[in-house]
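Holo prediction — S-adenosylmethionine.
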Amino acid sequence: MSGKIYLVGFGPGAEAHMSYRAKEAISDADVVIGYSTYIKLVKDLLDGKEVIKKGMTEEIDRCIEAYEQAKLGKNVALISSGDIGVYGMAGPTYEVLLQAGWSPEDDIGVEIVPGSTALSACASLVGAPLTHDFCSVSLSDLLTPWPVIARRLDAAGKADFVVALYNPKSGRRTQQIVEAQNILLQYRAPETPVAIVKSAYRRRQAIQLVRLDEMADCDIGMLTTVLIGNSSTFVEKGLMITPRGYANKYDALTGDAKEGEQAGRSLSMGLEGWQACLRKYLSENNGLTLEKTADYFGVPLGDVLSAIAAGDDAGKHKAARIAPEKIQAALSASENWGRLRGIVRAEAGAVTELFLHGKDFVHRGDWLNIETGAFHLHVNWAKVDAAYFACRDQRSYGLNFVDAFGRLLFRVLLMKEDGEFNAEPLNAYWTAWDELSCEMTEEEND
Ligand SMILES: C[S@@+](CC[C@H](N)C(=O)[O-])C[C@H]1O[C@@H](n2cnc3c(N)ncnc32)[C@H](O)[C@@H]1O
C-alpha cells in the first residue's frame, strides 16, 4: 500500500486564514513534516500525529523524509507557510521525487494544497496595493546571483510594476534592501508609498507605511514582506491603494476618459489605439523630439517611428517604414543627399554628431564602417532590424536604423547649407522615400 504526499500551504499563520482543504489534508495525514516554526503555528491540528520537525536549512531532508514516509504507506503532510508553491517546498519536493524515479502516474499520489501567500495576506492589512499589475522579487541571494536579482528589480522598476519583496533582510543580508531601494529610486519618486508588514496574521504582527526613500532605514527582518507602490499608488486615510486604471495618467491624451471610452472595450490607449494617441500627442505638442516622445510613452524609439508611420496626423512629424529588403538601398540612396550628420547616442546620455557623406559607408563583414582622418564609425549592421525615413516639418529629414528591440542604432540627417536645405539632395531624399517605403496600417504594426 502506498501513501500520499500533501504539500500544504497553510496561509500566513492564523488558523482563520487557513483553507478548508489545508485543514482536511493535515487531518488526513499520519505524519506532518515541517520547519519547527511552522509546526508551532499549526500545533492545534496535530493531535495523534507523528510530527517531524526540521531546521530551516534542512529543506531537501524534508522532501526526502516525506517520500520515505509515503513509501511506507503513510499519508504525509509537508507544510509550509503561505502558498507552498511560492518560494516554498513544492518545487524542491517535485525535484527530489523526479530524481528518485517517481512519476505522476505512480502509486504515491501528490496533491498541492494552495494557500494565501504573504503578498496577498500583507496587502489585505494595508489597503489594496495590488489591484494592478504587480510582481514579486526575493532579495535572497543564497541561491540566486545578485546580478539576476538586480536585473529583475530594474525591469520591475522600469515597467512600473508594484513590487512585493520577499526575504528582504536577515541578520547577515542587510545591504540587499539598500540596493533594491537605490535601483527603484531610479524610476520612482522618493515619496512612493511602501508598506512594510511583519508577521502578518501572527502574534507579533507590525505594520509600517513609509516612503520609498525611507524604506531601507525601517525595521525589516526575516518575517517581513515589503510592498512598494507604482507611480499611481497613493495613501489616503492610512490606506495604501493602487487604482485599477491608468486612464487618469493619460487624461490629456484620451480627452475626457469617461466619455471617450466604452465599457467593456479596450481603452483608446489600448493595444490598437495607443499609436493614434501618440500621434495626437505629437500634433498637440509642437516641437517635441522623437526621443522626448519615446520617454513620455516609455517605449523605444522604433515604436514611436512606427506609430508616426501608421497615420498622417502626427502634427509636424512624418515617418515611413522602409521595406525590409530595401534597407540597404536606402543607405545607398543617402549617397545623393550631400553632406550628412550622423547621430550616435550612448544609452547613458552622450550624443555624438559626425559630419559624413553617404558614399563613405563601407561594409566589412557584419559591420558598416566609416573611417576618416577625424573619426571611425562602426555600426553593427547585423543588428539593424528596421529602418524609417522620418522628417519634422522643414527642420529635419533623416534616415533611422533600429534594432529588434526598437532601439536606435544610428541616424543620418540631411544638413542645411547657408541656413537652407538644398533642393537637389532634398529631392533625392523624397524620391528615395517614395520608392523605398512601404505602406503601414496600425493593424500591420501590431
Ligand atoms: C521562504 S519565503 C516563503 C513564502 C511563503 N511560501 C508564502 O507563500 O508566503 C519567506 C518569506 O515570506 C514572507 N512571509 C512569510 N510569511 C509572512 C508573514 N506572515 N508576514 C509577512 N511576511 C511573510 C517573508 O518575506 C519571508 O521572508
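READOUT: Residues 337 and 426 are 7 Å apart (CA to CA).
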